[in-house]
């Protein structure tokens, strides 16, 4: 892990910062399609304000988290979308390519997450981590954006230097770090003290260095729907990374549960 912690991320090369915002008109489009899919899957009956989805679910237990994965039934239902959704996704990525100016491999299926208040096992969060703890390549860039308008994002990000310093305290032992994140309240209080709650609205997307430690927080009042995607610049790509989870995702073009077989430039 220590060898991975090198400040060579494309975002830093472009901006001299650990993250950047891009203005976007895609958030509302994805919001409409998420609503459509939830109706098709008979999770809700009609188009509603997604900020209040917890009040309209036909099965209220879908808001509860699996403690180990931190994923609830709602998010699991969105692991599979449809061709219409993926068509919009690819068009979004082409627009992102135009804005960034470099070719990249990308997560074949985006991750849609729904967090609701009063969920069982909500104490899974916060769980401060970097995706690299779970086998993701350090060259990746995280793309995150909200599909709801919330009073606070509940999404914390810690800059690269502070992330590195915090992990150094555990001698780059990510298992020890995650164990603290699961079991130590003071550990998470410290994380909150050095983190920034990222401003998120329906007109921007956030891109950040995948080495930056981050976490969600439990929803207290409203529901938040968000999307996150990993992209990997073709010029920086290194083969051989495999996810640490049970799916053993292969982070390479056409890899199992990994990247699309084409880079975005090849798809245009």
Number of H/I helices:
8
Structural class of the secondary structure composition? Answer: alpha+beta
Q: Overall 3D geometry? A: globular
Low-confidence stretches: none
Helicity, in percent? 25-40%
- The end-to-end distance, rounded to whole angstroms, is 35 Å
Question: Can you count the beta strands?
Answer: 9
Portion of residues in beta strands equals 15-25%
- Rounded Rg: 18 Å
SSE topology string: HEHHHEEEEHHHEEEEH
**Mean pLDDT, as a whole number?**
94
- Report the major sheet: 6 strands, antiparallel
Spell out the key features of this protein.
single chain; alpha+beta; six-stranded antiparallel beta sheet; three-stranded antiparallel beta sheet; 8 helices
Question: How would you describe the overall organization of this protein?
Answer:
The protein is built from eight helices and nine strands. Helix 2 (27-40) runs antiparallel to helix 4 (83-100). The model has no long low-confidence stretch (mean pLDDT 94). With 268 residues, the protein is of the alpha+beta class. Strands 1, 2, 3, 4, 7 and 9 form a six-stranded antiparallel beta sheet that branches. The chain has a three-stranded antiparallel beta sheet with strand order 6-5-8, covered by helices on one side. Helices cover 28% and strands 16% of the residues. The radius of gyration is 18 Å and the shape is globular.
């Amino acid at each position: 892990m220590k060898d991975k912690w090198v400040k060579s991320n494309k975002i830093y090369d472009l901006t001299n910062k650990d993250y950047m915002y891009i203005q976007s008109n895609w958030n509302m489009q994805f919001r409409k399609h998420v609503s459509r899919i939830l109706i098709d899957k008979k999770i809700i009956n009609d188009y509603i304000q997604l900020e209040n989805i917890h009040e309209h679910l036909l099965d209220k237990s879908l808001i509860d988290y699996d403690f180990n994965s931190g994923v609830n039934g709602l998010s699991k239902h969105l692991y599979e979308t449809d061709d219409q959704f993926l068509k919009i996704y690819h068009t979004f990525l082409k627009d992102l390519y135009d804005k960034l100016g470099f070719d990249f491999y990308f997560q074949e299926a985006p991750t849609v997450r729904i967090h609701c208040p009063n969920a069982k096992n909500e104490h899974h969060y916060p769980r401060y981590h970097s995706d690299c703890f779970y086998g993701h390549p350090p060259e990746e860039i995280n793309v995150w954006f909200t599909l709801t308008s919330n009073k606070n994002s509940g999404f914390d990000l810690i800059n690269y230097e502070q992330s590195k310093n915090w992990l150094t305290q555990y001698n780059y032992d990510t298992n020890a770090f995650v164990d603290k994140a699961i079991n130590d309240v003071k550990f998470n209080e410290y994380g909150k003290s050095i983190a920034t709650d990222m401003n998120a609205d329906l007109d921007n997307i956030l891109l950040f260095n995948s080495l930056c430690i981050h976490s969600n927080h439990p929803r207290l009042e409203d529901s938040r729907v968000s999307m996150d995607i990993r992209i990997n610049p073709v010029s920086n790509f290194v083969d051989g990374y495999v996810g640490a989870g049970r799916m053993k995702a292969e982070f390479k073009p056409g890899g199992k549960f990994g990247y699309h077989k084409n880079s975005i430039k090849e798809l245009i």
